[in-house]
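Support reply, case 0932

Customer input (verbatim):
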Amino acid sequence: MNKVLKFPQKTAASTTEHDIKPRKVRFDWSNTPLDWIPGQPFASAFINEINMILPAGEFWFCRLYNQALPHVTDAKLRADVQAFVRQEAMHARAHGGACADYLAAKGIDTRRNLELMDWLFETALADEPFGRKLPKFAHRQWLVFRLGLIAAIEHMTCVLGKYALNNHEWDKAGADPVLLDLIRWHGAEEIEHRSVAFDLYRHLGGGYLSRYYLSALTFVMVFGLWADGAANLLAQDERFKARKPSAFRPWIWMEWVRAARSGHLPDPMWLFLSELPYLSPWYDPRNEASTEQALAYLERSPAARTAAA
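Our regenerated output:
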């Protein structure tokens, strides 16, 4: 497929001013409790769902970027994309390990949530969506559309990464240091490579107006899946079963707002407002977070330090 695609390359340069560094990390889950934020079972479960959302999606990112890589003509952007792929693959493995060695080991049934994510990325958003072979003229559009989804998602992960680095309520509550490091290491690398997806999307012809519907699609998809998956985890907890948790019931959204007010989850309205800069014609990912802050955390992250050693 790559040999026949032609792309109108609107941007020929990377906007990442540093060299992105992949890090091979490992986490020991043997002492991490299910309520990893003490006294916050709802927030703990809500963030634990991230471990099930991410692996399939991030491996999908890697597959698409490997398809796009032969069409990248800018040397710096090519290097950025290659480093991005290595970081995202490590993110997928780290969160996959948390699913297997932490959540499943604690008796959580992860199959339903993982199978849903596999269906989304391996069937609905596959090269042949729902098993239907696309005509040749649609190959480029389908690839660029999906690269646009990734660019919109990466804006969201940058915002969430900034939240993770700046939220000290978890530390005050005595949150488990291993899971906290997983979240902050991942968030810091999302900030480190925050420009790559947007640069690649524009480089291969992604337009401004499409950012509106792509942003809307990703916001609904990501936060719908997040609430739905968290509801499945909460339904397995005897403390919440009577509430019959569901993304279609007001309770889970009200509880999300309550947990946000206590400082243990990002507020949904804040997340929505944080999406709006992506719609600006002057949007630049470099303005969304601090590379220096992210790299400073990666210098002291226990997992990253162990990997470097």
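We compared this against your earlier run and they match. Two observations from our side: The chain has one domain: 41-308. The radius of gyration is 19 Å. Please reopen the case if you see a mismatch on your end.
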